[in-house]
Input
Amino acid sequence: MPFNYPIKFEPILQERIWGGTKLHTMFGKASKNFPVGESWEISTMPNQVSIVANGNLKGQSLQEIIDRYKADFLGDEVYKKYGTNFPLLIKFIDAKTDLSIQLHPDDTLAKKRHNSSGKEEIWYIINAEKESRLLFGFNQELSKKTYLQHLKNSTLLEILHQEKVSKGDVFKIPSGRVHAIGGGIMLAEIQQSSDITYRLFDWNRKDAKGVERELHTDLAMEAIDFNIPNEFKTYYKSVYNTFVPLVNSLSFTTKILDLKTVKKIGTTSKDSFTIYMCVAGKGYFNMEHIQVPISIGECILIPASLKKYSIKPEDNLRLLHIKAS
Output
């Protein structure tokens, strides 16, 4: 099958008011003179469809490949659930300054309002400056009336949980949870294929034209989860050459893999494609006479029909392993 090899894609860079230059300086992603906040690595979002960067399919779009090969590419279970709709959006994010305080609707509300999936996401912290923090979830029981008063007074920070972060930390952000990525953080983001965001507060900043970005106070009210989270950080213990589970959700599963020696992968199932995000080091994906390099800030997609391959590490290789569910 012409698609049966480890596939890389051209990054799609996104200008953001809060972005910086690290996606270029740390990962070598080409950028112009504008603040790049996100690099969409694997996407079929409208007008933002990934293009293959290597091998037989070079120059073709991800959506073209899915439409042509269907379950052989996506996996039997993924195709049965999603058809030819790719269910995930994979990103690297560089937050030079704080993102807006925001949230995302769940599947039910997003379907009703936007004919879209909702959005839950996972964050893996690649790098964080000293004192960098995340905001997510409320730190106290509160009524909608109290919440709106804090919103009106620009005092949301008083009622939100804040957590300092370090390299290697992992967080799950369910739909409905109020959150913000703080300035000085570089992270990998795994999420549902949705770009619906309800912005609550944007630090009163203005764009280059002197205009404040739109807020979505009314839309957000029905979507907010006011419950205090039982857990904030996802704890794990890495074991070399072993897939260590991180997070399971209704939409995807995530594991972490630290390698010191070659890891041979073999499977008889064809339930889902696999994505690897490199969050440290570098290495090679090998099959037959094909070798595909990967380094920090890059991703590889393994089609569901590819049964056997191996991963050769160099320089403390750490990968996030993602499957749709």
